[in-house]
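Predicting holo structure, adenosine-5'-diphosphate bound.
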Amino acid sequence: MTGRQKKMLVRIIAAAVLLAAGYLIPAQGWVRLVVFLVPYAVIGWDILWKAVRNISHGQVFDENFLMALATVGAFFTGEFPEAVAVMLFYQIGELFQSYAVGKSRQSIASLMDIRPDYANLERDGKTEQVDPEEVAVGDVILVKPGEKIPLDGVVLEGDSMVNTSALTGESVPREAYPGSDVISGCINQNGLLRIRVTKEFGESTVAKILDLVENSSSKKAKAENFITKFARWYTPAVVIAAVLLAVVPPLILQGGWNDWIHRALIFLVISCPCALVISVPLSFFGGIGGASRNGILVKGGNYLESLAHAETVVFDKTGTLTRGVFNVTAIHPNSFSEADLLELAALAESYSDHPISRSIREAYGKDPDLSRVTDVEELSGRGVRVRIDGKTVCAGNDKLMEETGVQWHPCHRVGTTVHIAVDGEYAGHIVISDEVKPDAVQAVSALKQQGISRTVMLTGDAKAVGESVAKELGLDEVHTELLPAGKVDCVEQLLKQKSAKGTLVFVGDGINDAPVLSRADIGIAMGAMGSDAAIEAADIVLMDDKPSKIADAIRIARKTLRIVTQNIVFALAVKGIVLLLGALGLANMWEAVFADVGVSVIAILNAMRALKNKL
Ligand code: ADP
Ligand code: MG
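Done. Tokens:
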């Protein structure tokens, strides 16, 4: 509890005791008024003050004004204890609210406790602690066991296990050894690491994630906008109704002023939409925070909302459902030796970031002589074209061979075939194969269980490969041999076929699928640890590369939306009932204030459930 909250608690207790004392003192007339004015002043002076101040700023229908009007009105109609009680319960509700909101913020802040405080910079043979923002690309930093890795970089020296759980929610640590990339925000567990920094702090993974989480509340869900609009007319409408209720019936019935004013005051007590105004954004805030604790970064409440209505889920294949780590299963040369063909392929692929390229370089094992390679062209969805020793070399799929007019040989083996041609002459092919990710089958079946009616895979890979993967995973549909533009067309078709309420989710790895990510209702990029492109293009970012997280994300989204709906329906129903009972003269002020504060407390407690998303 903060100091301010503690002070308020003291005031609440004092006012409650004084109110109880007021009941026990058998005072009459103006003495009785004073007896109740004392606790009223103790608990309500700041509200009265704020009401006056806000009116002078032209802000009339705020909650302070409403409470002040209701309670002052109650004093005029002789309901002294009621006036004190309304103020007292209102303040209890406010205190609870500020406590709950503070708690949620705190727990999200600690979830996102990934901002590093310092970096151990190596300078002239010494190390000194500096602000991470002062470190430049190319600098060398030391990270001791137990320290947070402050910047993205490459390990130069040292072996260690790195705990990524603050970013991914994944408790199994990763290995770090010379040459491996490490990400800021992770904890170095056991070994000393010397790291060459590859990105400035402002561009680092940590800075990007923090940015994203901090900005997420600016993208509002429909439910949030609805509540804001609703609050704008609800309060004035209820106040006008209260005025009419206080004036019209006594004029018609010629009397009974006190009774009707009393009924009108009940309207004022219930006219504040606080429960909704606080609890709805708090639910989304909690849902986003709870998701990020599991390594699922959602860029705004609107995406959480549309994810809850997911109907079609479209996956990219390579790197998304499959590991994107290919093993060479066969080398079939036409005119070279096997070793020469592999070397040629590795040279051709030496500049590409595509999983296929990385795997071929890995299979080659040696460092290719980059000076032999010039004029690199990456042909997305097909392969690469480069010049090696002055000769044009193409490496890629059937499409690329057809385009270049090369007589290629089909391969009978199952797998992705990378053909190689030199100066238009066919040189042979390398067959590589990928594996599906260990949790991909479960990921697809979990989506089915959640009622996702259509699961689709898109790939630029060959028909045989695509179909066998789709079958293994139990996907409903597969479209193969697509270029990046073809994937966009495909998603556009699928968007037309879904129902009006449902949404389409596209899941990719961020490598050459940015156009599709942005075309889908919700773009999810996975394996974001270190991939800027993915973080930027997507609406939701999965820090690790587990497709099963998609079902988790949908579950969290649905839970959040359920909580929001519950709160809206519950709060409106209770307020409606109290308004009705009040108008009919069947409720008193005690009941009204109890109902109003009770709704707020319950709605906030319910909203805080959104934070808890233990998987
Ligand atoms: P996916 O749709 O499965 O993610 P891509 O669109 O990235 O796959 O690539 C489609 C196909 O294009 C690959 O299966 C491969 O045949 C070919 N290809 C793409 N990039 C390369 C490359 N760098 N080297 C060789 N072949 C490639
Ligand atoms: Mg891809």
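The longest strand covers residues 425-433.
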